[in-house]
Amino acid sequence: MRLSRLHSPFAFAVLLALATTACNRLAPAAETATLVPPPAIDEPASNAGTETAVLAGGCFWGVQGVFQHVKGVKSAISGYTGGSAGNAHYEDVGEGNTGHAESVQVTFDPKIVSYGEILRIYFSVAHDPTEKNRQGPDVGTQYRSAIFPRDEAQQRVAQQYIAQLDTAKVFSRPIATTVEPGRTFYRAEDYHQDFLVHNPTYPYIVYNDLPKVENLKRLFADHYANEPALTPASVAVSVR
Predict the structure, then answer these.
(1) Domain span at residue 76?
(2) Structural domain count, the chain
(3) Which among 39, 125, 228, 234 is placed 20 to 30 Å from 76, CA to CA?
């Protein structure tokens, strides 16, 4: 999703309007959703106030936009995971050789939505988990499908869920999602936060990401929240 090598919100907005790079290419509507079965093994019930999941599935605008509309999600923050702090910057990650993936840190109330249910939504509507190092018009390792578990329990649930779905041949191709423990999440620049919410008419969002939110509403009506959980202390850039 290379848009600019500049971090100025003004320059970013201008370059977005020029529609010259990957996230600006018009593409077919987002991949058809696949309602996958729930995980056979989930985390045990928890009384914790919140839990955190970190997921990557292509351009973080759409993944963030989906989870902002899930009941029980307190926040969904766009960022980078897989590389080091020194290269957790948009222009570096866009080169595709930092080890980072564009990712989203989802903070949720496990009493309302479980980690397994978060993964079910991730596999069903947030992206195509059979694509390797790409989603839609975006290509590169920074757009890989990856789960970054926070602990051994999350790692076990993720690995067993992938094996369950592959064994059941839910998808026509094997799942390409990697499970990468022990990685640190770094928050992305403010101009990436809440991008779908603030730019619902932006062509990339219309063609690639709004269908994902509609699929969430259609397939997971009981989990759908009409009002999005906005990113704390973000400064969003609106492109019209």
Answers:
(1) 49-223
(2) 1
(3) 39
Domain contains 18: no
Residue 173 forms part of a structural domain: yes
Task: Check: CB of residue 70 under 8 Å from CB of residue 225.
Answer: yes
Can you give the pTM of this predicted structure? 0.89
CA torsion, ordered 115, 34, 125, 159, to nearest 10 deg: 30
Choosing from 59, 93, 118, 121, the catalytic residue is: 59
User: What's the residue count for the chain?
Assistant: 240
10 part of a folded domain: no
Answer yes or no: is 33 within a domain: no
Q: Where are the beta strands (DSSP E) in 16-171?
A: 51-57, 73-81, 101-108, 134-135, 138-139, 145-147
CATH number for the domain that contains residue 206: 3.30.1060.10
Cβ neighbours around 52 below 10 Å, total: 17
Which residues sit opposite 138 in a β-bridge?
A: 135
239/202 Cα distance (integer angstroms): 7
pLDDT in tens, the chain (240 residues): 555 333 334 444 444 443 334 454 554 444 579 999 999 999 998 888 999 999 999 999 999 999 999 999 999 999 999 999 999 999 999 999 999 999 999 999 999 999 999 999 999 999 999 999 999 999 999 999 999 999 999 999 999 999 999 999 999 999 999 999 999 999 999 999 999 999 999 999 999 999 999 999 999 999 999 999 999 876 677 776
Nearest to 204 by CA among 11, 19, 56: 19
Q: Residue 187 phi/psi, 5° resolution?
A: -65, 140
